[in-house]
Write a structure and sequence with these properties.
The strands form 4 sheets. Strands 5, 6, 7, 8, 9, 10, 11, 12 and 15 form a 9-stranded mixed β-sheet that branches. The protein has 2 domains: 150 residues, 3-Layer(aba) Sandwich (D-Maltodextrin-Binding Protein, domain 2); 117 residues, 3-Layer(aba) Sandwich (D-Maltodextrin-Binding Protein, domain 2). It is built from 8 helices and 15 strands. It has 274 residues and is of the alpha+beta class.
Length: 274
């Protein structure tokens, strides 16, 4: 091999090594299907893989339970660079453009033929209703707020969004309670409801909550990837990749049974300069 050929080969190897060294550090929950788990079986894991291939990056995960403080303890501490599946208007970080929008749904057994669509359905006071709650202080999700404003308290059963972490995919419990008739109806975040309804041995019906806001409280949300505020270049790369692979991402969401609406209310961009 000539001297010039050897130089070219060395540069090529160095170039390839630099490309291979690119890393996409992701924080995700190790036990939170359908979104993510340690076996990388969630739809957010699948979407991250799509984006990483586009960026020619290797994915490395920091597994951290999705609890209050997880953004502060992971992303803001520099343990990772991206958190997938966050609300587009989440204030504590900057977000990409949304890659899907979902909605809370009423979930019922098909054989009950309840067809509940609104919190003002006159049958709700006579039914046992399941709602998801957040955190140790039992903070309310939007559906829980809507029911409380209507005085529906005695017949409402709260299910912790994070559940018993010793069990596999603990948030599934609220869907299983409908299937087993322990609940007449539940109001559940769409991706969670869709995924576990697909896998239920008892046929279940999902009906998006109408209208899409209950007074000032929205019932549907755009979902993005979150980064640190200062990582504008990474956000730009993620946005480009999300746009290039929009159809492939939609296919993944369809496969996982995610109820989707048209994306609206564009992601914040002002925070890029915060």
């Amino acid at each position: 091999m000539s001297w010039s050929s050897a130089v070219v080969a060395t540069l090529a190897i160095a170039c390839c090594a630099n490309v291979q060294a690119k890393e996409l550090r992701v924080c995700a929950d190790p036990n939170n299907l359908p979104f993510s788990n340690e076996a990388r079986q969630g739809f957010e894991n699948r979407i991250v893989d799509i984006i990483a291939r586009d960026l020619n990056a290797q994915v490395s995960y920091v597994w951290w339970a999705q609890r209050r403080g997880n953004v502060r303890n992971t992303l803001k501490e520099g343990l990772c660079d991206v958190i997938p599946g966050v609300a587009t208007d989440l204030e504590m970080l900057s977000t990409t453009q949304p890659y899907y929008r979902s909605v809370y749904v009423f979930i019922t057994r098909k054989d009950r033929q309840l067809d509940i669509r609104t919190f003002d359905d006159e049958r709700l006071p006579k039914l046992t209703i399941g709602v998801q709650m957040i955190g140790d202080d039992f903070a309310n999700t939007p559906p829980a707020d809507a029911l409380m404003r209507r005085g529906l308290v005695q017949n409402v059963r709260g299910f912790m969004l994070y559940g018993d972490y010793a069990k596999d995919s603990p948030p599934r419990a609220i869907v299983e309670a409908v299937a087993s008739s322990n609940l007449d109806v539940a109001v559940v975040w769409g991706p969670l409801a869709g995924y576990f309804a697909q896998r239920s041995t008892v046929p279940l019906v999902l009906t998006p909550v109408q209208p899409l806001s209950d007074g000032p409280v929205p019932m549907s949300f755009n979902i993005s990837m979150g980064t640190r505020r200062e990582d504008a270049q990474l956000r730009a790369e993620l946005n480009d990749a999300l746009l290039r692979h929009r159809d492939e991402i939609d296919h993944v969401l369809e496969e996982y049974g995610v109820p989707r609406l048209d994306v609206s209310a564009p992601a914040r961009t002002a925070n890029d300069s915060d």
